[in-house]
């Protein structure tokens, strides 16, 4: 065929078939030589690996993940069984010892009401962890499902949902909390969590919608559709893994704000109320005495800061592990 | 000519232009594809060329069922596939697969090569028994010239040419009869383009594939195609065997396109005539009346404004059996040599 003349370079493999093409592939493969292979290796005999098993393999070796996971496990443990490390009762207080420093058996000292700061800090973890984790879970699930579906299917639902999120964005958090939570009489974490989910989902929903719209324009989604993949398959296998990273990042940051928001609402008297035990209540109660008894403020604040940091680091590590490009 | 495996007739795709958010009102339509007819024979390669925005890619998406045509039929082995849905559509999709333009976005970055090439088997479980899939994926990697041991790697660990091979392996997984290649090499380095084009040519004989090869690079289309169709603004303006189109173009648009092809021989380059078109491609939302090329054509006359030229062998060549007698949608079709003949190119200082 004379018209094949312009392709001198290609003629070498045109006739030789398989072998020639393989040689070319080998010369192309120089970039592959440098890719780091783990001890478990990329050997052909290993069983097929998925994104999540690879991510787990990475996470197990990531010190940031290990430290934050240990902190979180510890927090979860003391939330479930606070009596395991604190023998006292957080509600047994002795006004005579108000604002006293540390004493034997009471390492963190006493707060303004003469309650043991150590016991109260341990018991307070339960509220903060419950509110933070459940509110974040609720917001993430609710927000990403609604936002993701709106972004994927578009059309009328998308338009309606976007306007609804606008309405929710217009509600000021503290004012909304004062109005909505003041009518609630139950002194449990559930109204607080419910309120956070109600006001928090539009943020996640917007981010999920945006990243789903970005992901669905990729050719690999078209390729899956051309293969005849169903909508659930495209959403779960192709779009969700590529759109979830921003949601994880925002959710972990939000987790810290939810723990802080719980403290704010408790301070305003519409969140949890004493006799409930929460870091937020303790921080609010101790802040007027910061000059006289800084320990009563610093211990619960420190616990709060470590908790928030642990969750943010965990989110960061998970995001990195889910991105093969960083591997 | 062999039995046509695919017949496209009167294919139209209009995208409505709307105004308003909730209460949409149609104010016009982008006529991306506006009446396209062609056939594809078993084992044949049909090249489609044209400028950006002429509707080439939309044709590809319509064939693969990624878009629903506004009108017209796509007949695959005697069955109109444009109105199919559900199971029947899924079954037809096994037979028409696509190779995408950009190998950097056509592979899911979070799936391993094994998952990507094996996905067709997950979607069509009847195509391969479960225990057999891994072996088949490795076979496919081997067929496209990649090391089967790469099965657990991620797309970002490969070069552009290798990624395109992975995309081709995915397209081949279901043993389709037709591969629609939408600019499969335009995103690659020139040095890699030839390898991928030659791979496609080898696979065609190996698997008895029919190709619809879309590109804007005329020389690549000529290299791989048996027949060529030139598209302009949603329509085919000229079609014929590759030698008929390249050496005996009769449509002014084809002549202008061909005159822009780089000529490696400096002597021939100096003697050839460059046809410079004036103006831009008109908006597909506002297509000129009559002949849609008339706004940029140096031959345009009154007749071109009122009468739409049909895609047929022009009257001037109807009796002659020569290579110029091929369908061309022009009222004033005439032969014009724009590319130096093959012989002079071969005798000259050929490409390095």
Measured between the Cα atoms of the first and last residue of chain B, the distance is 36 Å
Run of helices and strands of chain A: HHHHHHHHHHHHH
**Rg calc of chain B:** 22 Å
| Number of DSSP-assigned strands of chain A | 0
Strand arrangement in the largest pleated sheet of chain B: 6-7-8-3-9-10
Largest contact between chains: A-B, 55 and 77 residues
Helix and strand arrangement:
The complex is a heterodimer of chains A (327) and B (352).
Chain A (H helix, E strand, L loop, with lengths): L7 H9 L1 H11 L1 H4 L17 H9 L3 H18 L36 H37 L1 H15 L3 H10 L7 H27 L2 H9 L3 H38 L10 H8 L7 H28 L6
Helix pairs in contact in A: 1-2, 5-6, 5-13, 6-7, 6-9, 6-11, 6-13, 7-9, 8-9, 9-11, 10-11, 11-12, 11-13, 12-13
Chain B lengths: L3 E16 L5 E17 L3 E5 L6 H8 L7 E6 L2 E2 L5 H8 L2 E4 L13 H11 L9 H11 L16 H13 L5 E5 L7 H18 L2 E6 L2 H7 L2 E6 L2 E7 H6 L4 H8 L6 H6 L30 H5 L35 H6 L5
Parallel strand pairs in B: 3-8, 3-9, 6-7, 7-8
Antiparallel strand pairs in B: 1-2, 1-4, 4-5, 9-10
Helix pairs in contact in B: 3-4, 3-5, 4-5, 5-6
Task: State the main characteristics.
heterodimer, A: 327 residues, mainly alpha, MetI-like fold, 13 helices, 68% helix, globular, disordered N terminus, B: 352 residues, alpha/beta, 6-stranded mixed sheet, 4-stranded antiparallel sheet, 12 helices, 21% strand, disordered C terminus
Summarize it.
The complex is a heterodimer of chains A (327) and B (352). Chain A contains 13 helices and no strands. With 327 residues, chain A is mostly helical.
Can you walk through the features of this model?
The complex is a heterodimer of chains A (327) and B (352). Chain A has 327 residues and is an all-alpha fold. Chain A has one domain: MetI-like fold (Orthogonal Bundle). Chain A contains 13 helices and no strands. Chain A starts with 7 loop residues before the first helix and ends in a 6-residue tail after the last helix. The N terminus of chain A is likely disordered. Chain B has a domain of 98 residues. In chain B, helix 3 crosses helix 4. The C terminus of chain B is likely disordered. With 352 residues, chain B is of the alpha/beta class. Chains A and B meet through helix 1, helix 2, helix 10 and helix 11 of A and helix 2, helix 3, helix 4, helix 5 and helix 6 of B.
């Amino acid at each position: 065929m004379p018209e094949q003349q312009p392709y001198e370079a290609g003629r070498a493999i045109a006739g030789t078939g398989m072998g020639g093409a393989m040689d070319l592939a080998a010369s192309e493969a120089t970039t592959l030589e440098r890719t780091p292979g783990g001890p478990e290796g990329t050997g052909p005999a290993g069983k097929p690996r998925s994104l999540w098993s690879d991510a787990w393999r990475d996470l197990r070796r990531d010190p940031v993940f290990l430290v934050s996971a240990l902190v979180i496990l510890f927090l979860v443990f003391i939330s479930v069984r606070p009596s395991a490390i604190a023998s006292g009762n957080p509600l047994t207080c002795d006004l005579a010892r108000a604002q006293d420093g540390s004493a034997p058996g009471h390492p963190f000292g006493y707060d303004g009401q003469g309650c043991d700061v150590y016991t109260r800090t341990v018991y307070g973890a339960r509220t903060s962890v419950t509110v933070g984790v459940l509110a974040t879970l609720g917001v993430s699930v609710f927000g990403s499902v609604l936002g993701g579906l709106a972004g994927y299917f578009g059309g009328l639902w998308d338009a309606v949902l976007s306007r609804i999120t606008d309405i929710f964005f217009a509600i000021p958090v503290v004012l909304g909390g004062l109005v909505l939570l003041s009518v609630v009489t139950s002194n449990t974490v559930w109204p607080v969590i419910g309120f956070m989910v109600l006001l928090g989902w539009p943020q996640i929903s917007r981010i999920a919608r945006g990243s789903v719209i970005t992901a669905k324009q990729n050719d690999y989604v078209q390729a899956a559709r051309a293969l005849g993949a169903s909508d659930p398959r495209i959403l779960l296998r192709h779009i969700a893994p590529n759109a979830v990273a921003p949601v994880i990042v925002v959710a972990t940051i939000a987790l810290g704000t939810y723990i802080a928001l719980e403290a704010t609402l408790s301070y305003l008297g519409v969140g949890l109320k004493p006799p409930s035990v929460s870091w937020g209540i303790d921080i609010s109660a101790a802040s007027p005495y910061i000059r006289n008894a800084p320990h009563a403020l610093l211990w619960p604040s420190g616990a709060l800061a470590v908790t928030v940091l642990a969750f943010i680091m965990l989110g960061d590590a998970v995001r990195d592990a889910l991105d093969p490009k960083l591997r | 000519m062999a039995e046509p495996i695919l017949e496209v007739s009167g294919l139209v795709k209009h995208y409505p232009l709307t105004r308003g958010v909730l209460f949409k009102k149609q104010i016009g339509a982008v006529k991306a594809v506006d009446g396209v007819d062609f056939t594809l024979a078993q084992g044949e390669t049909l090249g489609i060329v044209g400028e950006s925005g002429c509707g080439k890619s939309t044709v590809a998406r319509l064939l693969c069922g990624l878009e629903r045509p506004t009108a017209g039929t796509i007949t695959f082995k005697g069955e109109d596939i444009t109105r199919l849905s559900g199971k029947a559509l899924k079954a037809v999709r096994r037979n028409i697969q696509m190779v995408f333009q950009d190998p950097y976005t056509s592979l899911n970055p979070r799936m391993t090569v094994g998952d990507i090439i094996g996905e067709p088997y997950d979607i069509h479980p009847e195509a391969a028994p479960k225990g057999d899939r891994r072996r088949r994926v490795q076979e496919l990697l081997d067929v496209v010239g990649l090391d089967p041991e790469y099965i657990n790697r991620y797309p970002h660990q490969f070069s552009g040419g290798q990624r395109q091979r992975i995309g081709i392996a995915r397209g081949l997984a279901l043993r389709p009869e037709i591969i629609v290649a939408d600019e499969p090499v335009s995103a690659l380095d020139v040095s890699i383009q030839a390898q991928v084009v030659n791979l496609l040519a080898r696979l065609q004989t190996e698997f008895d594939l029919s190709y619809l090869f879309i590109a804007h690079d005329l020389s690549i289309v000529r290299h791989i195609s048996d027949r060529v169709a030139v598209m302009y603004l949603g329509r085919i303006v000229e079609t014929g065997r590759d030698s008929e189109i390249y050496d005996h173009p009769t449509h002014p648009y084809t002549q202008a396109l061909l005159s822009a092809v780089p000529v490696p021989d400096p002597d021939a380059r100096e003697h050839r005539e460059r046809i410079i078109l004036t103006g831009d491609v008109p908006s597909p939302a506002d297509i000129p009346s009559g002949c849609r090329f008339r706004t940029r054509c140096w031959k345009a006359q009154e007749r071109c404004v009122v009468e739409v030229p049909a895609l047929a062998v022009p009257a001037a060549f109807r009796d002659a059996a020569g290579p110029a007698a091929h369908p061309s949608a022009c009222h004033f079709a005439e032969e014009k040599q724009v590319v130096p003949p093959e012989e002079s190119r071969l005798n000259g200082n050929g490409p390095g």
